Amino acid sequence: MSVKTLSNTALDLSTLSVREVNRILHAAEDGAFTVLHPNGAHALACGLNAPIDVSIQGHAGYYCAGMNKAASVTIDGTAGTGLAENIMSGTVRVTGDASQSAGASGHGGLVVIEGDASARCGISMKGVDIVVGGSVGHMSAFMAQSGILAVLGDAGEALGDSIYEAHLYVRGKVAGLGADCVEKEMRPEHIAELRALLDRAGYPDVDATTFRRYGSARTLYHFHVDNVGTY
Amino acid sequence: MTGAPKTPRTVPRKSATFDEHTLSEIRRAAATGIYDIRGAGAKRALPHFDDLLFLGASISRYPLEGYRETCRTDVVLGDRFASKPIHLKIPITIAGMSFGSLSAQAKEALGRGASAMGTSTTTGDGGMTEEERGHSSQLVYQYLPSRYGMNPDDLRRADAIEVVIGQGAKPGGGGMLLGQKIGARVAEMRNLPEGIDQRSACRHPDWTGPDDLEIKIQELREITNWEKPIYVKVGASRPYYDIALAVKSGADVVVLDGMQGGTAATQDVFIEHVGIPILGAIRPAVAALQELGMHRKVQLVVSGGVRNGADVAKCLALGADAVSIGTAALVAIGDNDPRWEAEYNALGTTAGAYDDWHEGNDPAGITTQNPELASRLDPIEAGRRLANYLAVLTLECQTIARANGKSDVRNLEPEDLVALTVEAAAMARVPLAGTDWIPGQNGR
Question: pTM of the predicted model, to two decimals?
Answer without folding.
Answer: 0.95
